[in-house]
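REQUEST ID: PR-0412
SUBMITTED BY: lab tech R.K.
PRIORITY: routine
TASK: structure prediction, single protein chain
INPUT:
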Amino acid sequence: MSEFRLAFPACVIAGKHRLTVDDISLLRKHSFPEGIRTPDDVVVMLALNNSCPEKCPEWNTFFVEQLAAFIVNYSYPQGSLDEINVAWLMRMVATDGVVNSPLELELVQHVIDIANYVPDELRAFALDQLRLAIDRKIGGYSLVRAVERRGISRQDIDYVMRVLRGVSDGGSINVQPMTWNVLMRIGEATLPASNHPRWDDIMAGLRLVEYAEPQRRSRWLRIVDDSVAVA
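STATUS: complete
OUTPUT:
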């Protein structure tokens, strides 16, 4: 197991019960004066998020915006995503394919929102969190889902359309195979009579498309080790 030591002020903040606005100001000034720019910065953010039981609302915005900006804008390919960044993100926020918390799920959604190109794997991964919530009642989305039922609610519709916004064109929703398959599995997990009427419109608008795989380039990216011990 590798050991990762937090520097000041993160080491002090990590020992607190509640993370405050003043703590965020200290982090901006001393730990991240230029924002999140390296994988080590990501480790610090994750450690703080996991170590402080209570957090001010401002932390959520800081966490999501800073990490999403690093993943999309300060990692190759800048402004976009590829299979390496997607695998890295999914490893950071999920255990066995299940997103650990609503905040980490919001990070995934915001990355999808701001990226110019989103690989099929990430859209499918995000949508599968709805299937897991409906079918097994587990995961970050299950924790914020207002209605526990085997049917698609208005909240679920909003979630699905946020994930699919970038591939929607008028009444058509152009999805690749992995996303298509997850949407089919979501439908199979529900009771049709309990679904919001908009679900049928979404399914009717689906168009299965095949895109050429982006050219793969050999490159190095440090993957955040989920076995890191913070000292």
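NOTES: The mean pLDDT is 90.
REVIEWED BY: pending
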